[in-house]
Amino acid sequence: MDLDERLTEVFDRGLRKGVDTLSPVDRELYLIQDFIIEYEMGGLSTYFYNRLPDLDLIQSAIAAMRRHGVIELANLLADATDLFRKYAELDVAATWGDVLRQCDPNGRLDAISDRIMALKGYWLDESAIT
Q1: How far apart are CA 66 and CA 86, in angstroms?
Q2: Model pLDDT for residues 19-52, shown as the tens digit of each residue
Q3: Its pTM surpasses 0.70
Q4: CA 74, 28, 33, 60 torsion-angle sign
Q5: From CA 19, how far away is CA 27, in angstroms rounded?
Q6: How many angstroms separate the CA atoms of 55 and 60, rounded?
Q7: What is the pLDDT of residues 43-93, one digit of tens each?
Q8: What is the pLDDT of residues 60-72, one digit of tens each?
């Protein structure tokens, strides 16, 4: 089974049976694939829109990437996550545009997203995922 097949299989199994049924390693692979799918559907903005306010989940995805050697992607996601450190303090009725204006007034999220797009295969070829 190649890397793409492995990530897809784990992700599909997690969706079917529940993430809590996965082994700790497979949960980490699930988080990596979850990021890739969300990113491909709409970039970092989509990923954060669908994951906030759960910064712990995002931090777990970053840790999983680092443990599996997907360092460059982990570093870029960590940089993007830093923009949302104060997200919990925002008005829950705020629109996504309001959130971005407050958390990312300089538009760094788009620049980081472009850097991720430039990574060959999300840097997965450099990973230790088997």
Answers
A1: 24
A2: 999 999 999 999 999 999 999 999 999 999 999 8
A3: yes
A4: negative
A5: 7
A6: 8
A7: 999 999 999 888 999 999 999 999 998 999 999 999 999 999 878 766 666
A8: 999 999 999 899 9
Sequence-distant (≥ 6) Cβ neighbours of residue 98 within 8 angstroms: 90, 91
* Closest by CA position to 39, among listed 65, 67, 69, 3: 65
